[in-house]
Design a protein that fits this description.
By secondary structure, the chain is mainly α. The chain is built from 18 helices and no strands. GO terms for molecular function: molybdate ion transmembrane transporter activity.
Length: about 475
């Protein structure tokens, strides 16, 4: 406890080391300032482009867009809050059940890899809204299964969890992107939704940690999962008014898609991905960057603990600061995009993403070097590198989403987004294996290489915007 805290307030302030208190106050202050500035900027103007100019600054169109954005982000907030509440306490729940935790997590990854290629075809054929609802139903079932101590029942839950995770990161985004275009909104307004999704993601992670802890204190280890059920039911009700879309705009093409053989849809997705190098490059960049991100997630706690920080490591405090860094990245993304337009007017998002991956690579390389050569005095610099990487995550998530919407055809969004998850799951498994068999500095060096490869591969798309099809 810091000596500057009055005695009457000692019961209200967490008993954290001084560095942790300063970290939380600094992260919270910077995030609040950035969010306030972003809110003011958003209220005053939306991105300008030839498309938005053609809309004649139509106030009715802007008002309609803001309603659409709020409608989507509200659902996104609820489902991500429910997802984070499970993620923060799943390990401790399984630990209390005394089951094989690694087998359960591996089952989830394998399930995601097995079902990914086929789910996308179903999403595109039967509708994105319908599969958002399917996601909610699956999550309710999964969280109900978590009440069981039976290992086979938990395994079933992890199999369903692999399916639902694929839907979470494909059906919702596919629906939003296609609906945005069907509503006639300018193309560059999509980036504001992705940026604010990143802010929501980081902010809900912080909130989830607090809410989940309160539920666990009152209901036991299963409490956060019961809360997730309630939130998922709420999300299901919020999705019901959504308009359905299949990635096609005209009725005849929509009917043709609905009547198409699933195998043909599946084959078309793979053929489109393999023939268009821009699409598979985007998929490889996503696999490398998110694979690096998940590997980092596995490593940050044991790494910081091994550095013996002064006063101990309040993991909840550091987790909240890292999530605040993600939200900060989301608020900074529009400004990075503006800067990138000066450097590369034709490919601002590609340039922004490549720069972000490069900074993440340097940060991870710096952390690896610190652990290798100055292990006993590198806690502060390593923590700073971790915060930098999470800020980069907040920057590259909206960039990656914007680029997927740009290069992946609407009609095949669900299929191709699930195809992207195949190499991603493979890298996550490889990263998990590395964390068990390599020294921390070697793992972070590997993560740095993955980010560097993502930066280089992303840079190959700079200036290559001709012939893009969105339908």
């Amino acid at each position: 406890m810091s000596p500057s805290v009055p005695s009457w307030a000692s019961d209200l302030v967490p008993d954290w080391p001084d560095w942790a208190m300063r970290l939380m106050l600094s992260a919270g202050g910077v995030l609040l300032l950035a969010t306030a500035a972003s809110f003011v900027h958003d209220r005053m103007s939306l991105p300008k482009s030839a498309a938005s100019a053609a809309a004649g600054d139509d106030l009715a169109l802007r008002s309609k867009f803001l309603r659409f954005k709020r409608q989507y982000l509200l659902v996104y907030l609820v489902i991500m809050l429910a997802d984070w509440m499970q993620g923060t306490h799943m390990y401790t729940l399984y630990l209390s059940y005394e089951v094989n935790i690694s087998a359960l997590f591996l089952t989830g990854f394998l399930s995601g890899a097995v079902f990914a290629p086929f789910l996308g075809s179903l999403v595109d054929k039967y509708g994105r809204k319908n599969f958002c609802l399917v996601y909610c139903v699956l999550e309710i079932i999964i969280n109900a299964l978590e009440h069981s101590h039976d290992f086979k029942t938990l395994l079933l839950g992890r199999v369903l969890g692999g399916i639902s995770t694929n839907l979470l990161f494909s059906a919702f985004e596919s629906w939003m992107t296609t609906q945005h275009r069907k509503s006639g909104f300018p193309e560059d307004w999509l980036s504001t939704i992705y940026a604010e999704s990143s802010i929501v993601n980081g902010s809900t992670a912080i909130l989830a940690g607090i809410v989940a802890q309160l539920l666990e204190d009152s209901l036991g280890h299963i409490g956060p999962f019961q809360g997730a059920i309630a939130l998922t039911v709420l999300a299901l009700l919020l999705i019901l008014p959504w308009e359905e879309n299949y990635g096609e705009e005209d009725h005849q093409q929509q009917k043709k898609t609905a009547d198409a053989n699933l195998y043909q849809k599946f084959k078309e997705g793979w053929t489109t991905t393999s023939r268009d190098s821009r699409i598979w490059r985007i998929g490889c960049v996503q696999a490398l960057s998110e694979g690096a991100m998940y590997t980092f997630v596995f490593m940050w706690v044991p790494t910081l603990l091994s550095l013996d920080p002064p006063g101990g490591l309040p993991t909840g405090c550091v987790f909240s600061a890292l999530m605040a860094a993600i939200a900060l990245g989301g608020t900074l993304f529009p400004h990075l995009l503006s800067l990138s337009r000066l450097l590369s007017p034709r490919s601002p998002t590609e340039t922004a993403a490549s720069l972000t991956y490069a900074v993440a690579a340097v940060s991870m390389a710096t952390a690896a070097a610190g652990l290798k050569f100055r292990r006993h005095s590198c806690f502060g610099p390593v923590l700073a590198c971790f915060l930098t990487v999470e800020t980069c995550v907040g920057l590259f998530l909206p960039a990656a989403g914007t680029l997927r919407s740009k290069y992946v055809p609407d009609a095949l969004q669900g299929c191709i987004l699930n195809i992207f998850r195949l190499p991603l799951n493979a890298l996550v498994v490889a990263g998990t294996y590395a964390t068990d068999h390599l020294q921390p500095e070697a793992v972070f060096a590997l993560v740095s290489v993955w980010f560097f490869l993502a930066a280089v591969l992303q840079a190959t798309l700079v200036g290559g915007n001709k012939g893009i099809k969105k339908d």
